[in-house]
Structure formats: C-alpha cells, structure tokens
C-alpha cells in the first residue's frame, strides 16, 4: 500500500468525519444564538473574540490537514528542538516522519516537526473558541437571558432553555477536550518532550516503580525470614536452658 501523504486524503477516519460535522454545528450554533439574543457592544465583543479564535482554528486546521508532515521545513518549535531531532515511522501513514510527535486520528495525519507549531495553535484556538462559546451559552441561560425574545423565537422559555441547555452541554464537552489537549501540549513544551517521549518516559517510570516494588517486597520477605529464624533460635535456646534447669531439679531430688 502507498503511504498517506496528508490528512485531506482518503480513507477518512471516523474521528475526522466527526470533527467535520461537530465543529461546523458548534460554530453555526454560536453565531445563531449570538445574533438572535445579543445586541450592541455585547454582540460586537462576543462575536469579535470568537471569530478571531475561530479564524486561527480554521487556518491551523487547514495547515495540519493539507501539509505533508514527512517533508522538511515549516515553523520550528524551539522547546522541542532536542526531541524533534529523530524521525520515526508511522504505521498508520506508512512513512517516516521527521520529529514525529504522534499520529492524530482526529486530523487523520501525523503531527511532526513540520506541523507541531500549527497543531499547538490549533489546540489553543480551539480551547479558546469552545470556552468562549460555553461561557456565552451559560450567560444566555442565566444573567443574559431575554425571556421576551426567548418566548417570541422559541414559543416558550422552557423550549429555549431545553435547546440551549443541550447545546451548552455538548459545547462544554468540546471545550473540555480542547482545553485538556492544549494543557497537555503546554506541559510537554515545558518539559521539552513530545508525546512519543512522554509515553516512553511514562513506561520507563512504571517499569522503575514495578522494580522498586519488587525489591521492597523481597527485602520485606528477607526481614520476615530473619525474624522467624531469630524466633526459632530463641525458642531452641529457651528449650535447652529449660532442660538444664530440669536436670538440676532431678539432681537436687536425688541428693
Ligand atoms: Zn501518521
């Protein structure tokens, strides 16, 4: 089989198809509720901040999906300069990727030296956009609620709350996923290691913990055995001294 070149290439993964449906729905929902229930400066600020994050998300997503991560070039990620020196083989893409970090099922392509910076900003802008959307939806359900407009556009306030509440819960899941991803990669940057290096370190630490536990168990067993031996020795000595005392007793009686 020939290697996969980029994310925008079949066969598409189920996770990738999910993002193609979920993100446009989340974005459409945001603009719909913002334009239906907000106005003035509030509308301007909310739409401007979300749109700025969404523009970065869209641009970095397109870059990650359209670039071939097995090629050299692109932006260089300084904190990862050591961990991105090696090229690794990706079994899913069937090719060697310089500075490979991981194969992303959601983008259906590899994240390596060529695309890591774009990927990092994708996670950051996605986290910001989904957090803004979640916060705006929560406010539209609470302190920003316009009951007259809700009744007019949804038939009832209950209907408005049910629909917006469902979208809020779904967008919060999206925000949680993006924020977790962004925090994880920010942590990796502070450590100067990629996802692959982190997995190797995790496995080595687990192995070291297992070895430590085995050594501690063996030492504990050794100490127990020593205690048992001492107790046995003491018992034998006590028995012997008891026999000597008995011997005296007999001797005394005979005398
Ligand atoms: Zn790959």
Structural notes for this entry:
With 255 residues, the protein is mainly alpha-helical. The chain has two domains: 14-193, no CATH class; 194-255. The protein is 71% helix and 5% strand. The protein has six helices and four strands. Strands 1-2 form a two-stranded antiparallel ribbon. A two-stranded antiparallel ribbon has the order 3-4. A hairpin with a 4-residue loop joins strand 1 (87-90) and strand 2 (95-98). The protein is flat, with a radius of gyration of 33 Å. It binds zinc ion (ZN).
Secondary-structure element order, N to C: HHEEEEHHHH
* Uncertain residue segments: 249-255
Q: CA-to-CA gap between the ends?
A: 105 Å
Provide the spatial order of strands within the biggest beta sheet: 1-2
Percent of sequence in beta strands:
5-15%
Number of domains: 2
Instruction: Please state the average pLDDT score.
Output: 91
Number of helices: 6
Bound ligands, named by name, code or SMILES: zinc ion
Biggest sheet, open or closed, and with what strands and sense?
A: 2 strands, antiparallel
The shape, in one word, is: flat
**Total strand segments:** 4
Give the helix level as a range of percent. Answer: over 70%
Structural class: mainly alpha
Radius of gyration based on Cα positions? 33 Å
